[in-house]
Amino acid sequence: MIFRTAGQYKTSYEADQALFPVKQDFYLVLGILLLGYVVFPLTASEFTFKALLVPVLIYALAALGLNILTGYCGQLSLGTGAFMGVGAYATYKLMTIVPEMNIFAAIFLSGFFSAAVGVAFGLPSLRIKGFYLAIATLAAQFFLVWLFEKWAWLYNYNASGAIEVATSSVFGITVTGPTALPIVQYYCVLIVVTLVTWVAINLTRGRYGRMWKATRDMDIAAELVGIKLMTAKLTAFAVSSYIVGVAGGLLVFFWKGAAEPNLFDIPLSFQILFIAIIGGLGSILGNFLGAILIVALPVILNLIPSTLGIPVDSATLEHLNVMIVGALIIAFLILEPHGLARFYAIIREKFILWPFPY
Amino acid sequence: MNALATDMATEPDAAAETASREELLRVDNVSLSFGGVKAITDISFDILKGEIRAIIGPNGAGKTSMLNVINGFYHPQQGTITWQGKERRKIKPHEAVSQGIARTFQNVALFKGMSTLDNIMAGRATAMKANIFFQMFWYGPAMREEIEHRKKVEDIIDFLEIQAIRRTPVGKLPYGLQKRVELARALAMEPDLLLLDEPMAGMNLEEKEDMSRFILDVNQEFGTTIALIEHDMGVVMDLSDRVVVLDYGKKIADGTPEEVQGNQDVIDAYLGVAH
Amino acid sequence: MLYDVLIDPFVQMVAVPDFFLQVIWEGFVSGVLYALIALGFVLIYKSSRIFNFAQGIMVVFSALTLVGLHSMGIPAIAAVPLTLLVMYLLAMSVERVVLRPLVNQPDIILFMATIGITLFLIGFGELVFGGENKVMITEQLGIPTGAFELEPFGGFVLIEQKDVTAVTMAILLVVGLLLFLDRTKMGRAIRALGDDHQAALSVGISLSTIWVLVWFIAGVIALVTGIVWGARAGVSFALEVIAYKALPVLMLGGLESVSGAIVGGIAIGILEKIFEIYWGQPFLGGNTETWFPFIFALLVLLFRPQGLFGERIIERI
């Protein structure tokens, strides 16, 4: 009886096109925001911030970026990891060149670099399609990671070949570097993620979203109704890579603290792709659900043996982990190929109709 | 359908009337081939402003290829296309849309994952211009534009009587309704020339009557010129002002429905065999 | 500078032809192996429209199983058929557990499922046989390990016998496969499935039998590739990088063309080696083999979107 859409009449197109036309949805999102901004910071431990909350947010953001390209515009990309790397390295270089720069400004600016690289590698999408394009995005993946390794200027000629995050502060609060508090970093990530998610929702429900979805569903028909495929695909590549780049900047600066080139290698790309697909392609919410699952799973798997009192050495555990994740992916695809977001949609539908079955 | 027949009967001077009308599109000596296969050979005809022009012919006669040439999806090897009095250079399909040529498809080509409303809104793609930065924040021009176009789209939804399925993903709609949504999407482009590729294929009688009514309404209320491909001869003879008949990529007849019906070539190639 | 990059490498190729030949031979051998892996992809794609990402990991998994079984005390003669049995069981369980429930799902879902298989096999293989690098049981399998020395142009070219074995085995495998596809009833069924699933089903071809068969053949190809590549580079999951090399081969040769896979594989093998030796190492700091094939295939595709062997695409509406 709580979730009733009946009786909420719209009297203007403004109201009908509002962010949350149904007021229960609005309360739900308000509740989640409250949880994220108030409840978690008050209750979570340092471990929870570092191992669960921050990774979930960052991975969800990267998956959101990928989802715009793959889920909304239908262009499969296997190069997400490398584009995250572009964002991270760009932020790093910006912070080296202008050390007093606000870290948020640096991260949002560096998104433009990854967007530019994304558009460059997106150009082939105008000529090639489907799996051929997916393989083409691997070109970006391998080339960029190779570049991160070989171009010493990118990591300031460090002997280690890695980038390390220097301490920086905003309004007198230390936000990056080894001395930054996890709770502060969590808030930084949360604010960026909230903002970008809101922008992504706006883009996907408007004119650009329709262009992307039309291209995804039937590119020839899209062209014949007057959509410029070039604009649609390249904006999708640009927006997607921008968001992914921002996620990469967050990954290094607010979570890992340091990064070697191989961090951005193909396993990261696949991890993000898993999140997007298990969460649900063509959905915003799904990215968060998928990220929660993929991040929490290894943490929980690690806890099981110790709580049961079975001694398992860490290497075995790691192998077991990989195996179980692989099996779970297959299981999820079989159970619900449209992802967790579809699960949620079904449950919501049931609630609206409750207590009647139809 | 009877009503339509009487409509036609009350316009005995239809031929005389069309003769005085202005030319909207003309195709001259167009030929198109794929590799060695000739799809269209040396076809010429014109479409006058405000008329309903039918293109008929047996399967594989080159009808759909002809529509594809008109809206710039295929480029003919020979011949010229004159649009609104000016010879047209080689164009892309989306340019054809902005010049005022819209179409529907033989096999429904809707965006299956999108709602009816979004599909029709997508038809307004060329008309919408708001900057991506306003889009990002759903603010100012972007929001105003969205509402302004939504109003136009809602008019079309009312006109075609599809209010109830506004929010339904089109993939879930029955075939007849999908065809109607496709017509709605084409109308959203506010075309001067509307190309309909077998709008009534696979429909039952009732759906065909509805669709015929919509096509006539579009033609008369909006003054939209219509070129249509259709296999149902009853519909073709009732709706169209003039008919062009293709067979094996060649034009074999051109004229009013009555003239075409009496043409011996047509009867041999098509009607005579079919009935 | 421009001279160094654009002209000098070619001058060197002509000036030291024996070294150039050596480079080409090395590239050719790895190209043959890329072609083999690509062939596994093509077979599965043709018969089931599945882009099987796990093909590369099947190479490692089969090699690991072979070595692992041998280290458990099973003689090489028995270990090979046993490994084949394992590959058959794998094909069967993939069909039963993954493919059958996912029939008719979009391509991308099946593709993701094969990545799931990849992860599962990595975890499973490491769990059972351990994650450390192993040595392929080259001698026990009777693969000769010596080398021929040729002396063309007054220099010398070193040709290892195991590479010759690799190429010979690959040729035999490919010829056998082509005969099988062309001459047998099963082969015809596979080709029919590749053309049209529903039509093939309606004339009484059993989908699941064919799928098991095709995945098993892919497993056999994987085992052969695993043995010969393992003999050159050792056996560990680091081998999976060669699986990625098969992808640009597919781009170049087309996802459905057997001859495309072979020609594309050899071309990529040779070109990446030449680029690495004459341009990559002197100018770019080396290790260009990771990306060169992809960029090369990409550039070719930009000018020929249908690939080297595809037919011209006519879009219809």
Structure description:
The complex is a heterotrimer of chains A (358), B (275) and C (317). With 358 residues, chain A is mainly alpha-helical. Chain A has helices spanning 13-16, 23-43, 46-72, 80-97, 103-122, 130-150, 182-205, 207-217, 219-224, 229-256, 266-279, 285-308, 314-335, 340-353, and strands at residues 163-164, 168-170, 173-176, 258-259. Chain A has one domain: ABC transporter involved in vitamin B12 uptake, BtuC. A two-stranded antiparallel ribbon of chain A has the order 1-4. Chain A has a two-stranded antiparallel ribbon with strand order 2-3. Chain B has 2 domains: 1-100 and 191-275, Rossmann fold; 110-190, no CATH class. Helix content of chain B is 42%, strand content 23%. Chain C has 317 residues and is an all-alpha fold. Chain C has one domain (2-303): ABC transporter involved in vitamin B12 uptake, BtuC (Orthogonal Bundle). Chain C is built from 13 helices and 2 strands, in the order ααααααββααααααα. In chain C, a hairpin with a 6-residue loop joins β1 and β2 (157-160). The radius of gyration of chain C is 21 Å and the shape is globular. The model of chain C has no long low-confidence stretch (mean pLDDT 81). Chains A and C meet through α6, α9, α11 and α13 of A and α6, α11 and α13 of C.
Q: Please state roughly what percent of the residues of chain B sit in beta strands, choosing from under 5%, 5-15%, 15-25%, 25-35%, 35-45% or over 45%.
A: 15-25%
| Terminal residue distance of chain A | 15 Å
Q: What is the tally of helical segments of chain A?
A: 14
- Secondary structure class of chain A reads mainly alpha
What is the mean predicted local confidence, pLDDT of chain B?
84
**CATH architectural name of chain A:** Orthogonal Bundle
Q: What's the overall average pLDDT of chain A, rounded?
A: 85
Please count the beta strands of chain B (DSSP E, at least 2 residues each): 10
End-to-end Cα distance of chain B, whole Å, is 20 Å
Main sheet attributes: strand count, strand direction, barrel closure of chain A: 2 strands, antiparallel
Unreliable residue runs of chain B: 1-16
**Basic shape of chain A:** globular
- In quaternary terms, these chains amount to heterotrimer
What is the CATH superfamily classification of the largest domain in chain B?
P-loop containing nucleotide triphosphate hydrolases
CATH topology type of the largest domain in chain B: Rossmann fold
Which descriptor suits the 3D outline of chain B? globular
Tally of structural domains of chain A: 1
Physical arrangement of strands within the biggest beta sheet of chain B: 6-7-8-3-9-10
State the CATH architecture of the largest domain in chain B. 3-Layer(aba) Sandwich
Largest interface: A-C, 45 and 48 residues
Strand content of chain A: under 5%
